[in-house]
Queue: 2 jobs
Job 1
Amino acid sequence: MSDFRPETRAVHLPQPPVEGSRPIGMPIYQSAGFAFDDPELMGVAMTRPDDAFVYGRDTNPTVRALELAVSGLEGGAAALAAASGMGAINTVLLALLKPGDHLIAQRSLYGGTATMLNDLAGRFGIAVTHVPENDPAALRAAVRPETRLVYLETISNPMGLVADLPAMCATARELGVLSVVDNTFATPVLCRPLEHGADVVVHSATKYLSGHGDVIGGIAVFADPDLYGKVWHFATELGAAAAPFTAWLTLRGIQTLPLRMERHCANADLLARRIAEHPAVSAVHWPGLPAHPSYELAAKLLPAFGGVFSFELAGGRAAGEAFMRSVRLARIAPSLGGVETRVMQPATTSHRFLGPEDLARHGVSEGMVRVAVGIEHPEDLWADVAQALG
Ligand code: PLP
């Protein structure tokens, strides 16, 4: 390049040789496209997502490293990273459904997903039926000839309902229907839905996978490579691909995921139990409490019960707001899965687009407070919560 002029040399920058040693951390391949030595190789690479890299909307080495990591942890054949959790969910559903199809979803879900399912029904003529997350007979009764997909959450947001994955996924398979499971709350540390018969696992990587509140990302993991290939082709058309830096931050977070989950779950255990005993509290929704409807199933299916719970105060919405104004350590903030504890009210945030009827179906009351428990010292968290309840 030294024989070119500065204007040309500034464009065609030299790259250091990498032979002889390699980076321990995954490099960020911040490149929209990749250059080839031969035009024929580029044409071939275009058709093969897991071979050479061509264009960042199709795939990228850093993004591929994240896909391999999560696919490995979930026990899948392949994965597809997306720009957000909703990006991953929409990519999967839009790739697999067409107008006139029917989808069966569990009745209590993350509000964004519930709103999106309402949209699918209204705009694309895809009918949606809701069933309890643990009732294979209801699933069987809801199935129609045009049913394509069953949609579940391992641990539901925000009620903490645990889906009976072995029974629901086996029934879906028997009926010839694909099952898609949102494993955001459980992460592969607590549950690997593909091992229970699910076909696709989706995640908001914004939450525990990245773990530090600095990423918006999503990922879908597939048991069947052919199904992955079909969704990948649609994903390249949709254009909701993950960015390399997002993938890199998520990879970095994943390295401490098992450690963080241990602490999230232990802290939630201590807080949920103590809050449940407080006289101002009328209900706590966390599957680790024996009074929770999912307790027995959760104890069989999961090694721990997750880091998020919600609770209700006898004073309703005003009491919930007063509680949130009084906490000093916990942040009033959306989302979950970060190292710091967050509180919010689902009715005005994650589930805000749902009307009163839908909110009732999801079990979300106006005054409910959701606590996404962080990894701080548990007694500091309890002191904060106790003074706010007081
Ligand atoms: N799934 C669950 C269970 C969630 O809680 C969320 C977001 O809160 C999503 C999916 C959507 O993820 P994102 O916000 O990354 O699009």
Note: The chain has two domains: 6-254, 257-389.
Job 2
Amino acid sequence: MSELSVNHLLGIKYLNQEDIKLIFETADHFKEVINRPIKKVPSLRDITIANLFFENSTRTRLSFELAEKRLSADVINFSAAQSSLKKGETLIDTVNNILSMKVDMVVMRHPNPGAGIFLSRHVEANIINAGDGAHEHPTQALLDSYSIRERLGEVKGKNVVIVGDILHSRVALSNIFALQLQGAKVKVCGPKTLIPKHIEKLGVKVETNLRTALNWCDVANMLRVQNERMEISYFPSTREYTQQFGVTKKLLDSLDKNIVIMHPGPINRGVEITSDVADSDQAIILDQVENGVAIRMAIIYLLASKIKQ
Ligand code: NCD
């Protein structure tokens, strides 16, 4: 297969196995490109991309911008804090105005789940979801799986535990879909209050003991506690959370095997993982960041090649 089955990247739930395979093979090529002395290719010289960030972001926004620039696309950036949204403009109006400026593709992060899906039904442009509330974050899940494939050879057959605040995490849901699609087994681990009630319906097992979960897995994906999405207190104190669900070097060294540690960032050092874990050889956190650029180049390139036809 040489093209994606979708015109937008709204969530992993809309992709099939072949799409993921194609994205990874294309990313392999771009990873080689970004490690050359000249890191840029002219592929998207006639494409204009708008990055619309209605919610804070550092890594994802920079990673998309870099990916777009390395493909030679024209890029415009918009962040909600400085926009007319504050003056009462609707999402559709804001975006339509931007599209009148002849934008071909929109990368959007938005606090409302489904914002990208809504947009894709109303505007003519390819939409890439860069995180919609606590729903999906497809490019993060793709770069996570790609990084597992790079470190362990393949994703199929691997045991992956996602640890922490599953309830408020878009990274968790997209990872569950992506990992299962590729034949990995997934467990979630965290305080009961931060695990959605019916998560087992997704084919995911719940483990509340961190040591048991780590002894089972090949990879642990450590999530940040999303305090900004919490209106009530889900656990007694950060100290107690860390005691039960934080990964320390001592804990890692006491396991039967060498597991891989991942984190989507931003890390709260000393809360979900200690600094010596974040900086250890078992952690692939900076590989994830590097791979993020190659994965985003692949997705943008593959979606843009559908416009050009
Ligand atoms: C994640 C996000 O924004 O959902 N970060 C990211 O995209 N790198 C996770 C988080 O904020 O904890």
Note: The radius of gyration is 19 Å.
